[in-house]
Amino acid sequence: MTTLQSRRLFAGCIFGLLGFLPRPGHADVPTPPGDAVIATSRNSDFAFVPVTSWRSAFTCDGATLDVDIGERRNLQLVVRDPSAIAHFDAKLPKNLYRSVADGQSFAKGLVNAKGELILRGGQAQGFGGVFEPHQFVSLDETFTTTPNESESFSFVVRPKDHDDLEVVLARAADLRYHCSEFGPESICVGTITVEVVRAEATWRFACSAASAR
Description:
Radius of gyration: 17 Å
Low-confidence stretches: 1-43
Strand order of the largest sheet: 5-4-7-8-9-12
Distance between the termini: 31 Å
């Protein structure tokens, strides 16, 4: 379990003790008392395995959403639009770190040498792999201001109206993860959906969907 995953699990316990309640629109989510809102150690099905090959599921004006054809739960959004990148960069501290493929070490920076912002994560927990665009639910990736995660920001990518994609930047503390079913010891065994309580910045891409098979 990574440091970030451990902190999400710990945060879930704290939320339960403080008695947070689900926000309007989530009243149908079955939860045990005191655990209505969770931050979980497994809010997505991202697998730290070597990528086989990326295939585009959405081609957008300035971005693409790709699926790993070897592990269909692994996703990435490649943002190439300089205006979109500048829009998010203006809302972020400059000393950002991101977790790299082994899930343990950290690499610094928001964009790569090509000037691309690549957001890599997993399909939301419980929703399975993405073979067709309509199967995509969401992905999120978290950046921190130090490797010790003193302050965290998350990008959330989700479909919006037909084939469009919405990218939301929020402080990690302003995200709520909602579980559809809890098992023993209040561990989420169902699907998990993410709610953005307060956004720092949002960008919407006009896209066209294509089969990711």
